[in-house]
Structure formats: C-alpha cells, structure tokens
Amino acid sequence: MSRHKVTVVGAGNVGATTAQRIAEAGLADVVLVDIVEGLPQGKALDLAEAGPVVGHDARVIGTNDYADTAGSDIIVVTSGLARQPGMSRDDLLAKNAGIVRSVVEQAARHSPEAILIVVTNPLDAMCHVALKASGFPRERVLGMAGVLDSARFRTFIAAELGVSVEDTHAFVLGGHGDTMVPLSRYSTVAGVPITELLSPDRVTALEERTANGGAEVVALLKTGSAFYAPAASTFEMVESILRDRKRVLPCAVLLNGEFGVDGLFVGVPVVLGSGGLERVFEIRLTAAERVAFDRSVDAVRELVAKLPS
Q1: Known catalytic residue: 176?
Q2: 296 FRET partner, CA 20 to 30 A, in 137, 176, 254, 284?
Q3: Which tens digit of pLDDT belongs to each residue from 173-202?
Q4: Can you tell me the mean pLDDT for 48-63?
Q5: How many Cβ atoms sit within 10 Å of the Cβ of residue 1?
Q6: Could you say which DSSP state residue 137 is in?
Q7: Is the Cβ–Cβ distance between 272 and 246 less than 8 Å?
Q8: Which domains does the chain show, CATH number per domain?
Q9: Given 4, 56, 128, 176, the catalytic residue
Q10: What is the pLDDT of residues 288-299, one digit of tens each?
C-alpha cells in the first residue's frame, strides 16, 4: 500500500508548520514547494531530521520544481503575501490572485485528481481563482477559514467560562474576514448554547473578537501573521479527507443554491471525506442571522468582482 502524498505550496510559516503536522502525524509524505531557491529544501531537510526524534517515517522533500509534486492526493496552497499591519485583505487581492493562479495551474497539471485546499488570503476570492485555474469540480476545491475561525471562537468561549476547549463547539458562517458570522445559538459548551450561559453583551464581545482574530495576532506580531492555528486547522481538513473521516467542518465551498447563494465561495458547514466536499450541511437561519450572512456574502461578491480577469 503506497502512502498518501500531500504537496504544500509555500514554505513560509503556515506552509512549513502544516508540513510538520502532516509528517509528524505520519499521515502522508510531504512535498514542500516554493519559488525561493533553497528555502523549501532547507526546511524539508530540517523537518526530515526531526523524524528519528519524533518517531515518524514520512518523507519530507523540498523543491522548486512542480514535477516533484506529481500524483499528490492533496495540494495545500499557502503561497502569497501575508497581511502587514494596516493592510486590508483587499490590498492583497491582485497580488495574491496572480500568485495563486500560477501555482495552482502548475500543481493541478501534475496532480489532476488532487483535492485543493486554499489557505491564501483573501481566502474566499482566492478559492475562485483556484477553481478557475485548476478546472477542478467544486468538490475538490476547498478554502480553509471556518475551521480557524471556529477554533478562535472556541478558545475565547473556553477562556470566558473556564472550561476545557474540548467541550466547546463553535459555529461560524460566511466570508473569512470582518463580516464573518459567528452563530452563537449553535455554539455550545457540552451541548448547551453559549447564549444560555453568557449575557448578550459578553456573547457579542466574543463574536467581535473572533471576527478580528487574525488582525489581533497581526497587530501583536507586527512583522507577520498567525500560523500555528492556521496550520493546525489546515491539518484537520487534510486528515478528514485522507482518512475519509466525514468530519463536519466549516469550509469555504462553491455554493450551488445552498443557503440561497449561487456561484460564490462562502464558509458553510460541510462533510469532508475522501472525495473532498461530500455534502453541505444546510441549516435554517433566523432573520437577524440571515441579514448578517447576506452582508457577508455581499462582501465576498464585491471582492470577487474586483479580481483581475
């Protein structure tokens, strides 16, 4: 039985940390690709040399040549410019669209059956770029945002209530950005909605902190953006796909009429298995949630309209 193969495009902090998690879990062999000569090779060698200590036999190789990525089961796209303080996600749009188009075209050509997981921001718009550049069906183009946003929400809920993060579940819909919609009545501690456990103003404060979670880290770091939690979140998606676990995770997927949205990538709960997106979990929204969700969808639509054609 041959091992799974995962290509991670972009050997920066998010890419390298994702490669580390996949290798250390013994989940797949990993190919780290980057345009910078020596960077992926050096990080891959360093990761490989941790293998004897950590106790895994996954192969980790670094390359500047997409031929080495051939036959990948999953391609994770992290390449692009990270947000700098004061920079909006929109500022990144044109620059990262060009990068994502180029890397996806190359990677998809060598692994035509792969599943794409897009991590580059602005996330929802980059998924559109990846879909077009790859020519893949919608089931095989996914965006990583909701898992991260939910993880942040769960972290804040657990801290607020003094409980284990394992007993917190969070539900986040919509675009990855300031308009995301944390659904508090579906966010629970041991099955109890947080709206029953916290005052409305505390709930609102946690929702707002979640929506600005990425910016909070950027402001503290000053020279970069979050990578531990994004890498862990990407790993959770990779693992659900490779092990066919059918996890229900919030991901950005192309909606075809679900939630009343057509032809846009928006974060919704989906079942992730060996085929990628297996189904969308559709839920009924209250009037207020629908207004917030539609506002988020409009923000995504505006971004996509600004994409260089």
Answers
A1: yes
A2: 137
A3: 999 888 899 999 999 999 999 999 999 999
A4: 96
A5: 3
A6: -
A7: yes
A8: 5-143 (3.40.50.720), 146-305 (3.90.110.10)
A9: 176
A10: 999 999 999 999
